[in-house]
Input
Amino acid sequence: MSSPRIDAHHHFWDPASGGDYGWLSGPFDPINRRFGPDDLRPALVESHIDGTVLVQTWNDLGETWAFIRTAAATDFVDGVVGWVDLTDPEIGATLAALQAAPEGKWLVGIRHLIQTEADPNWLLRADVKRGLQTIGAAGLAYDLVPNLPQLPSCVQTVAAFPEQRFVLDHIAKPEIRNRGFDEWAVLMRGFRPERGHVWCKLSGMVTEANWQHWTPEDLRPYVLEALDIFGVDRCLFGSDWPVCLVVARYKRVVDALQECLKDLTSEERDQIFGRSAIEAYRLPRYSSATSQELPI
Output
């Protein structure tokens, strides 16, 4: 049986719902509209993607509830990375309620938009650390979504929680358009000792490149560096749809990563395009096939 192909990072949203979507303006105005399952499905079929991980778009518990219900009602959504307040003393009860719901099995991870926090060391606060510990105890992964200023605190955090599964989103958003490789690479190499419990999404790169003139070769050095730091078994594909649409069609994003990975074996590409997501998030649809092989 062929390995399933998983898109480990995409979003749905409806700006008319009243969410925090003020950033959908200026160059992002073309995607200032509702995006739901029916919008994504044709792109998945075209690129032979079997399943997805739906990721939070703003810091709102109501969205998390809505997303796990969406997952239960959508055949291709295999998991949800939602949001809860890490600083809330009642975070344990919140997670328990989510997981006990009929749709609770689809909650596979938690994320907070740390790049919106004024303090680059927000993750190192005592109340945040208690929240992270609770997430780990609930068996959930935690997604890190930093810009470069938050990256050192992310390295410290994963070192402090060696039993927790972490997923680094968008290869930490290097400034590809400004040839920002060196500064990014030095910071990223801090993850090398922690690669046993940290995964890296090869995602979000096209919007960090030159929107008009990017090519897969612009992305390739960053992809190869991430592979060297984390290993093939800790890297996974994410489209960042529909954000990516301001730069490229879904299929072009998929094809660009495949071009970057052209020197890998077919088994290694299968790992990045599927198995890594299943392992990082313990996706329930595939858990029985992988539970005996998961490292943590």
About this structure: The two ends are 25 Å apart (CA to CA).
